[in-house]
Specification:
Elements lengths: L1 H33 L9 E2 L7 H11 L4 H5 L3 E10 L5 E6 L7 H9 L7 E3 L2 E3 L1 E10 L2
Antiparallel strand pairs: 1-4, 2-3, 2-6, 4-5
């Protein structure tokens, strides 16, 4: 009886080890089947102002001149605008999503259009892309 139990336990241990071995082999085969031989790494950088967004907004805040009427009415709000950054770093298709009036849009557009932005780069190649900003307006 004791000998019979011993053989049963040894067979059970061998079975457990065999199950573990089969599981490990199955996992290794599965991982190998789903791996790709030639993995392509895509690097992408979105269009941006070369000195950074903080410098861009500081430039706009310091350079934007509000009309006397805008200052008198103490206009405030958020002005949303978008534009395309071309491969040669120039800006095109500039448009405003909303309007605060008092000539703020024209003044802001005149400040932004001459600027050069870094174009979108993907895998080392430049592309034309669209970008959008929200600019806080505070005339006081």
């Amino acid at each position: 009886m004791i000998l019979n139990d011993l053989f049963y336990n040894l067979a059970f241990i061998k079975n457990q080890n065999m199950k573990k071995l089969i599981f490990i082999i199955f996992c290794a085969i599965s991982l190998n089947a789903f791996s790709q031989a030639n993995m392509e790494i895509v690097t992408e950088q979105v269009a941006h102002y070369p000195k950074g967004d903080t410098e861009f907004f500081m430039y706009l805040n310091h350079s934007l001149k509000y009309s006397p009427e805008a200052k008198l009415d103490e206009i405030k709000g958020k002005l949303m605008f978008s534009f395309d950054v071309d491969v040669d770093s120039t800006i095109s298709n500039f448009m405003f999503m909303n309007n605060v009036g008092y000539g703020v849009e024209d003044s802001l557009k005149k400040l932004i259009l001459p600027l050069k932005f870094a174009p979108k780069v993907m895998n080392g190649k430049a592309f034309k892309s669209s970008t959008m900003f929200t600019f806080p307006v505070f005339a006081h």
